Amino acid sequence: MPDRSAVAYFGAGPAPLPTEVLLKGAEAFVNFQNTGLSLVEISHRSQTANQILTDTKAALTTLLEIPDTHEILFMHGGGSGQFSAVVLNMVAVWVEKRRREAEKDIGGDPQRIIERVRKELRDTLSLDYLVTGSWSLKASQEAANLLEPLGSNFVNVALDSRKTSSAGKFDNIPPEDTWNLTPPRTKGGKSSAFVYYCDNETVDGVEFPCFPECLHQRPEDPSDEIPVIADMSSNFLSRRVDVSKHAVIFGGAQKNIGITDVTLVIVRKDLLSTQPSSSFLHSVGVWSPPTILSWPIVAKNNSLYNTMPIFSIWIAGEVMRGLLDTHKHRQLAGQEELANMKAKEIYDVLDRYPDVYQIVPTRPVRSRMNICFRVRGGDAAHEKAFLEGAEAQLLQGLKGHRSVGGIRISNYNAVDLARVRRLTAYLETFARDNRP
Q1: What's the rounded Cα separation, in Å, for the pair 356 and 164?
Q2: Would you tell me the crossing angle of helices 78-106 and 134-147 to the nearest 10 degrees?
Q3: 53 — alpha (psi -120 to 50), left (phi > 0) or beta?
Q4: Residue 76 in contact with residue 261, Cβ under 8 Å?
Q5: Tens-digit pLDDT string for the chain (436 aa)
Q6: Is residue 221 helix, strand or coil?
Q7: Which among 161, 204, 229, 249 is positioned nearest to 369, based on CA atoms?
Q8: Helix, strand, or coil here: 357?
Q9: 368 DSSP 8-state letter
Q10: Bond before 354 cis per omega within 30 degrees
Q11: Maximum Cα–Cα distance across the chain
């Protein structure tokens, strides 16, 4: 049986964790801080649990420099659960804004307000999605499914990068001036309830190189603001992020943050108070968010409306505090530099042998976290040999996602430089031995 130090794991998720965090976790799992209780046994409403939430929020706030305008939530359901939560909560925000406008224009006639908002909803509701890979595609499909009972297609796919790919794949992000975003009302448009993007596509290896400039809004009329929603599940805490440019950021923990069964949501506080009553939502034909997915309810209860996985939140906090200890005052700038260095060393080897390795995404949008490529044009025998050779050297978790095949190197934060260099040495050897 190999020692943990001998294995280099590059799986896409659940991902590797720092060994020191696992050792602390093993101790906490049996006897947390000499209480005689496991951390999985203590009450989620205990002082200990509340302190864990407070400490984890503090660490995340420091790392991401989260402004006071935003709240941190811990939720269930992973990123996929937030596909639904985003639609249900943000459509509720959109409805409340229209309700307030109607009330201002009409006065206190409830029925006329309902009729006006119902008509505006059916005529003008739009949700913008930037579809650059498998996960943003799934998110847009979930939105369409949730809103289908209203009788119209309210989802605007502002870009589908398969349409600008010579291979019909998710391998690029087209120029911003080609995106078909819903125009604001002051320019004769509908004004979208939000625009949604996935910052890093785990399956396809596509990452936005930076925040899209066209989403950096400075509207003269606040009603023209289109809230920006980002799924950062697989590149969370790997680089600096301007949280203030986002209405909502979310991410499943099992990539760069911790273990499964906890989802982090960073939501702008004004959205939590811009919510109509459930009865008003129902009167205009919209479902209210289920309690378990309602951001305002989760926030009001300090993420403890129901039993949260305190152990998982503690693990996430330990990972965050480890990053702070490692990079000190540089915080995520230090981790970003390291992530870029590791990714560059891998891509440099792959680019050196183009007759053996074919990188899937175009160069400007290559992911630093999930490096996807084919071996000898996707030849099954060569890709099998590559994976078998890697396994023999305890380089594990390299098989591509089942939907696209190929090879995928997941370069998450806990994958250290030494393990990356073991992998690049293997890439060199395999390429030299398998040239056409």
Answers
A1: 25
A2: 50
A3: alpha
A4: yes
A5: 789 999 999 999 999 999 999 999 999 999 999 999 999 999 999 999 999 999 999 999 999 999 999 999 999 999 999 999 999 999 999 999 999 999 999 988 999 999 999 999 999 999 999 999 999 999 999 999 999 988 778 999 999 999 999 999 999 999 999 999 999 887 778 889 999 999 999 999 999 999 999 998 766 667 778 999 999 999 999 999 999 999 999 999 999 999 998 999 999 999 999 999 999 999 999 999 999 999 999 999 999 999 999 999 999 999 999 999 999 989 999 999 999 999 999 999 999 999 999 999 999 999 999 999 999 999 999 999 999 999 999 999 999 999 999 999 999 999 999 999 999 999 999 999 999 9
A6: coil
A7: 204
A8: strand
A9: S
A10: no
A11: 78
Can you read off the two tokens belonging to residue 145?
């499914």
One-letter amino acid for residue 284 of the chain:
V
Q: DSSP states of 98-133 as a string?
A: HHHHHHHHH-S-HHHHHHHHHHHHHHH--EEEEE-S
Amino acid at 218: R
Beta bridge partners of 263: 75, 252
Tokens 């790392």 — which residue? Answer: 63
- What type of residue sits at position 79? G
- Return d(Cα 126, Cα 94) in angstroms, integer: 10
Residue 185 identity (one-letter amino acid): R
Q: How many CB atoms lie within 10 A of CB 373?
A: 24
End-to-end CA distance of the chain: 36
- Mind giving me the DSSP string for 40-73? TTS-TTSHHHHHHHHHHHHHHHHHHT--TTEEEE
Question: Measured between alpha carbons, how far is 126 from 124 in angstroms, rounded to an integer?
Answer: 6
- CA R_g for the chain: 23
CA distance 317 to 58: 9
Q: Convert 136-181 into a string of H (helix), E (strand) and C (coil).
A: HHHHHHHHHHHHHHHCCCCEEEEEEHHHHCCCCCCCCCCCHHHCCC
